[in-house]
Amino acid sequence: MSIGDNARFGYDAFLGVAEETTFGSTATSASFTYVEFGTESLKRTREELKLESINTSRDFRRRLTMNETVEGAVECDLNVASDAVVYIMKQAMGGTVASEVETAAVSYKHTFYQGDMENNKGTSTADDVKSLTFRVAKGAHDTSTTNMWDFNGCRVNNLSIKGEVGSPVIMTAELVGKTASLCSTVPTVAFSNVAPCTFIGATVEVGDSLDSTTAESFTGFEVSINNNLVSDTNARVLGERTVKILPPTRREIGLKLTQRYDTTTAYQRAIDETSMAIIIKLDSLQTIGAAATTYSMHIKLPTCYFNSNMPEIGDFGVITHELEVSPISSNTSTGYSIQLEMFNATANYE
Amino acid sequence: MVKFKLKFIDHRPVYIPKLTYHRGGLSLKKDVEIFVTKSEKDNLLRMKNGNKKCFIEIKEMKEKLEEEVKENVDR
Question: Is there a contact between A188 and B16 if contact means CB atoms under 8 Å apart?
Fold first, then answer.
């Protein structure tokens, strides 16, 4: 057999996530949890530099490699029962997680706070989680020739959660990492047995404050957390081709809502510059064990401003408008722009 | 292949898509027992929920295990 005569298949791929307590230090095999995913594009690349120096010839005679970059995106259905999905969201938020028991040994509530991706240990005995390792097998996971890559030092640059009528809720994480290495320890892959959230369990509530929201009817939403990670020259040092640090800078939260146009409320909110609180509730509608709580999450945006918007008429059908909303933080020491609450069966995410 | 028996003890149900003795994949709920190879046993015994293990090993006589695998396994 020659190279290229065989085949590997996407259906056989798997993707695992584990937390790193030292930035860029690959997590141990035992700590990975696996997730059913839609697409992944994680790649380790090195910039090529063909030297332009004059060399008495028309040809390039020197080729050097420069900065190494690990980048890619992972797209999966939003399943709050999957710890891998939760680890990705936790990293994107960058802060601590407070967990409390809802029903002993059955269901738990976790609150994910925003943070700086450095100082985020949940208890004094826990470790700060600096980054994630992604273990990706690009096909053929149960043969002796499985090739997996461990992408370490990964941080979420941009996280987007999107829901629209007729679809599962999709989470997309754009990642930046430090480096990658080949790995040959074949794990046994296990997934959550709970189905992901769909549009049926999605509701968007709007109100003056988080305590007084009521559901409004929307046909779609997309919320994004942009961490604006620095990965260019300012994140690098002499003597290393990989990034030394991956600091998050300005956090920008985005929200787009689509809705049938039937009133001028959204227009008025924009013109009056009214601060609104929005809670996006995503529910899998499946109970956690025998408890009454369902696998679900709430995305809390306490200070949102509707941007200027008016519907456009393009045909004779139903008029819709796409509302662009700017969630920001209130100007108080305890203010935040986004917070996540999650209900599942995992005891803690310290 | 050497066979081992594990019991799933976590309260979170999981799905395992590939196991040597359960080719079609397995949905596991608490207290379900499965048959595994040595490497699968090593992998699964490391699975944890927080600080708690998800599987424990059930030790049985080799002959009894062989018999149970013949009866119960989906090959």
Answer: yes
